[in-house]
Design goal:
There is one protein chain. This protein is α+β, with helices and mostly antiparallel strands and 203 residues long. It has a domain of 62 residues: Head domain of nucleotide exchange factor GrpE (Nucleotide Exchange Factor Grpe, Chain A, domain 2, Roll), CATH 2.30.22.10. 48% of the residues lie in helices and 16% in strands. The strands form two sheets. A three-stranded antiparallel beta sheet has the order 1-4-5. Strands 2-6-3 form a three-stranded mixed beta sheet, with no helix packed on it. β4 and β5 form a beta hairpin. α4 packs antiparallel against α6. It is elongated.
């Protein structure tokens, strides 16, 4: 008798058919069958990359524009600080210019001929001081508003009264009571003036 049949402890080995199948007995799917399906569509992936690139480019351009605006704003603020940083001091200093002018107005040219030479020399010294003071103000961008004879400008002039005068165009500055000043492009102090009324309207 055959040895395999005579020994009941020995059984013939056969391939495990369930090992290559799924739990439900279906055959296993080949390894490379779904590889193409797992990969993204190249055209869609390229389109997504282009969209990301456009978004990043837009963000970069916005950031550069913001930096440029910040740079310009900073430069403007620094320039304004240089020009207008002395505004308060310059406004206070105008009182000195006013006092010098009042002192000189008390001695018109025709009255100086009868003055003592020493007094005349003193007046000349005050005139030099006034001119020097205005030149120093000009170094800081402060200049006088030339209002006399000009058309009334509410941005630079303050009208105190009207002067009936048909010889001048109506709306012309006929008298300056107190001179005005500019600092840079801004009004440091408006000129206080009298405005002509009665003549033809100023053009």
């Amino acid at each position: 008798m055959d040895e395999a049949m005579s020994d009941p402890t020995k059984t013939e080995t056969t391939p495990d058919l369930f090992a290559a199948a799924g739990a439900d007995g279906a055959a296993a799917e080949p390894v490379g069958a779904s590889a193409d399906a797992a990969q993204a569509d190249p055209a869609a992936e390229l389109e997504a990359l282009r969209a990301d690139n456009a978004a990043l480019k837009d963000r970069l351009l916005r950031a550069l524009a913001e930096m440029e605006n910040l740079r310009r704003r900073t430069e403007r603020e620094v320039a304004d600080a240089k020009i207008y940083g002395v505004t308060s001091f310059a406004r206070e200093a105008l009182a000195l210019a006013d006092n010098l002018r009042r002192a000189l107005d008390n001695f018109p040219p025709e009255a100086r001929e009868a003055l003592d030479p020493r007094v005349a020399t003193l007046i000349e010294g005050v005139e030099l001081t006034e001119r020097d003071f205005h030149s120093r103000l000009a170094r800081f961008g402060v200049k006088k508003i030339e209002a006399q004879g000009s058309r009334f400008d509410p941005h630079q002039h303050e009208a105190l009264f009207e002067i009936p005068d048909e010889s001048q165009p109506s709306g012309t500055v006929a008298q300056v009571v107190e001179p005005g000043y500019l600092i840079g492009e801004r009004v440091l102090r408006p000129a206080k003036v009298g405005v002509a009324r009665g003549g033809p309207k100023a053009g």
